[in-house]
């Protein structure tokens, strides 16, 4: 018994010491309550220096949390108990969040920097007049390939992926919308198509691609492509530019049949506690110089027109990542297809994976 | 009387644990499994489960889990047997157990490098003259890594069973003229069968629902029930279907536990 009590005392003492140390450490880093802003963003999707600058300029403490899928983010906000002040969902999720009444309208008078955004990226169908969202980054879905390992194929068309010489060489994104959408695009259908017959055709087409498919992966593929392990990948433009910076042999193409054009946008969730700071943060991020710095770090494409002049020229003039309007006109934005159609997409995708 | 109250006190943590972390989640899963996409009560999910796509997936999950368990057992039994014969057996056992403390995902990422085209495994194959092969994203690598992960869990119960085995039985068998194989078949294996069953349970059941490995190592080309549940919850957000698959997984687990469960020993005579 005596021993037991001694043990208990030791455990309690150690816990107490740890608790005090942690709170000290947190205090020294400024997590002391007061004027804080909680930002909920994708992993590795902001330049930490920009956050520091914001804290210094405004005196607001930023708590930065990350998610790795739109769905996970939405589920967490939906279930409450969180107090995210700014979140960064993609466009089709914004439609869903609007439906579920999870967003607060944005007060445009508090965001004068909104004028810096290219009008091409304003007032889009998923959020008319940008009532709830402000564009953060945008990009495309396309093909990254290793020019040293692949000879004679330029991938101007999705059809090129079906080339018999590419056996077991392609790594796809593990995402139903992206891959079924690619199947639809390769047949010149819209990637928002919900016609069961078209979907079946796309599925059959994808199954015939299976001999060329080596794997379906998530973020891991960035590592494998950069190291030369994988020679062809279907991926988002931002990831592409990131790995191309690491491996010069890689190139990125958006096939001519069309593809996905996507937007990640800053929104203020209904659960926000510090709405003023949220507006201040969004406005800060739209400042041309800040946006330029952030874009150089994240390496996705910025919708901020004024920021372009502060960025390296070779970055801005790279049509692979800043495609001209002629190309973006051919691309499509994902629409929210509703749960039933999404379930059908997923079932086809699951079946495709099991083939 | 006091004895009884203290016993009741002791049961409180257990009851709370079981109520909150076993019964409540199962009830929730059951409740969701009867909801369709619109949140109405329906049996659609159960009907869906009996379509070819989910049945095929269930079968392939079982097949891989079976394969993994079998290979794990084939390796684990001789290793456990060897360990009981060694001088510092606890130390050797510890060396096998320690790697299992490392997070499974970290080990999976390590295998990405080892099995890669330019990885160590292929360098080795080249040196011995077989030549480099595509190892990553194949059934083989999936089974290999799974076996690697489960082996310590299989060894432990078998080791304990073998270690408890009374050596005088072996001497008796030997004295009575039984060959080594007969001794193993008639004495050693039957007496350690409980350890084998426990090891199989601890391997087969988690192997049915492995899900990160299916993507990292098998490149999403192997789909287990676990993968399907993850997809339904996180991607499709069809919690109903995800729960239905989970219900079946739970049923399968109970069947397996029942089938491999240790029967109460008859009183020794």
Automatic annotation (TrEMBL), chain A:
Example GO molecular function: polyamine binding
Cited InterPro entries: SBP, Sperm_putr-bd
Organism: Terribacillus saccharophilus
Protein name: Spermidine/putrescine transport system substrate-binding protein
GO biological process, one term: polyamine transport
Record-level GO cellular component terms: periplasmic space
Pfam assignment, any one: SBP_bac_8
SUPFAM superfamilies: Periplasmic binding protein-like II
Binding annotation for spermidine: 92
Localization: Periplasm
PANTHER family in alphabetical order: SPERMIDINE/PUTRESCINE-BINDING PERIPLASMIC PROTEIN (PTHR30222), SPERMIDINE_PUTRESCINE-BINDING PERIPLASMIC PROTEIN (PTHR30222:SF17)
Keyword vocabulary terms for this entry: Periplasm, Signal, Transport
Main location per the UniProt record: periplasm
TrEMBL record, chain B:
GO CC, alphabetical: plasma membrane
Main location: membrane
Subcellular compartments: Cell membrane
Residue span, ABC transmembrane type-1 domain: 58-260
InterPro entries listed in its UniProt record: MetI-like, MetI-like_sf
PANTHER family with a match to the protein in the record: INNER MEMBRANE ABC TRANSPORTER PERMEASE PROTEIN YDCU-RELATED, INNER MEMBRANE ABC TRANSPORTER PERMEASE PROTEIN YDCU-RELATED-RELATED
Protein name: Spermidine/putrescine ABC transporter permease
């Amino acid at each position: 018994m005596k021993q037991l009590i001694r043990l208990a005392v030791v455990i309690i003492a150690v816990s107490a010491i740890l608790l005090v140390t942690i709170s000290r450490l947190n205090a020294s880093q400024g997590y002391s309550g007061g004027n804080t802003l909680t930002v909920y963003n994708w992993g590795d999707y902001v330049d930490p220096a920009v956050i520091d600058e914001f804290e210094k300029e405004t005196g607001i403490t930023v708590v930065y949390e990350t998610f790795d899928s739109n769905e996970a983010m939405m589920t967490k906000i939906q279930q409450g108990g969180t107090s995210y002040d700014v979140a960064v969902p993609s466009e089709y999720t914004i439609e869903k969040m609007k439906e579920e009444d999870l967003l607060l309208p944005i007060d445009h008078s508090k965001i004068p920097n909104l004028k810096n955004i290219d009008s091409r990226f304003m007032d889009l169908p998923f959020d008319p007049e940008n009532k709830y969202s402000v564009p953060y980054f945008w990009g495309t879905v396309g093909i990254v390939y290793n020019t040293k390992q692949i000879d004679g194929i330029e991938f101007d068309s999705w059809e090129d992926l079906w080339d018999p010489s590419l056996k077991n060489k392609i790594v796809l994104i593990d995402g139903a919308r992206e891959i079924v959408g690619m199947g639809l695009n390769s047949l010149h259908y819209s990637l928002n198509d919900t016609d069961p017959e078209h979907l079946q055709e796309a599925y059959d087409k994808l199954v015939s691609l299976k001999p060329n498919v080596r794997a379906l992966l998530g973020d891991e593929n960035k590592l494998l492509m950069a190291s030369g392990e994988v020679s062809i990948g279907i991926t988002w433009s931002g990831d592409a530019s990131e790995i191309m910076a690491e491996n010069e042999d890689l190139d990125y193409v958006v096939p001519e049949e069309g593809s996905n054009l996507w937007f990640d946008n800053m929104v203020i969730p209904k659960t926000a506690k510090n709405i003023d700071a949220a507006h201040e943060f969004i406005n800060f991020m739209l400042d041309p110089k800040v946006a330029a710095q952030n874009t150089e770090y994240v390496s996705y494409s910025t919708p901020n027109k004024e920021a372009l002049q502060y960025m390296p020229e070779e970055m801005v003039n790279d049509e692979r990542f800043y495609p001209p309007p002629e190309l973006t006109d051919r691309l499509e934005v994902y629409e929210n297809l509703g749960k039933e159609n999404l379930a059908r997409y997923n079932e086809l995708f699951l079946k495709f994976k099991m083939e | 009387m006091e004895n009884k109250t203290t016993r009741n006190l002791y049961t409180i943590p257990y009851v709370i644990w079981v109520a909150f972390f076993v019964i409540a989640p199962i009830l929730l899963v059951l409740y969701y499994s009867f909801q369709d996409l619109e949140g109405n009560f329906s049996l659609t999910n159960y009907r869906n489960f009996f379509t070819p796509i989910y049945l095929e997936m269930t079968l392939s999950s079982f097949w891989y889990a079976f394969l993994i368990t079998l290979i794990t057992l084939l390796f684990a039994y001789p290793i456990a047997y060897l360990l009981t014969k060694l001088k510092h057996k606890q130390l050797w056992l510890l060396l096998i157990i320690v790697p299992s403390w490392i997070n499974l995902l970290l080990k999976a990422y390590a295998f990405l490098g080892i099995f890669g085209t330019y990885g160590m495994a292929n360098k080795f194959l080249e040196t011995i003259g077989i030549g480099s092969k595509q190892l990553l994203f194949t059934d083989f690598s999936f089974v290999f890594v799974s076996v690697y992960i489960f082996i310590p869990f299989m060894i432990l119960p078998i080791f304990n069973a073998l270690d408890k085995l009374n050596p005088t039985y072996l001497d008796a068998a030997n004295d009575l003229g039984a060959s080594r194989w007969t001794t193993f078949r008639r004495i050693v294996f039957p007496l350690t069968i409980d350890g084998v069953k426990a090891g199989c349970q601890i391997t087969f059941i988690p192997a049915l629902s492995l899900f990160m490995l299916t993507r990292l190592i098998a490149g999403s080309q192997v789909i287990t029930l676990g993968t399907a549940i993850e997809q339904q919850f996180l991607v499709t957000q069809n919690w109903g279907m995800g729960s239905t698959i989970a219900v079946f997984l739970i049923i399968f687990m109970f069947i397996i536990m029942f089938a491999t469960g240790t029967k109460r020993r008859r009183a020794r005579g």
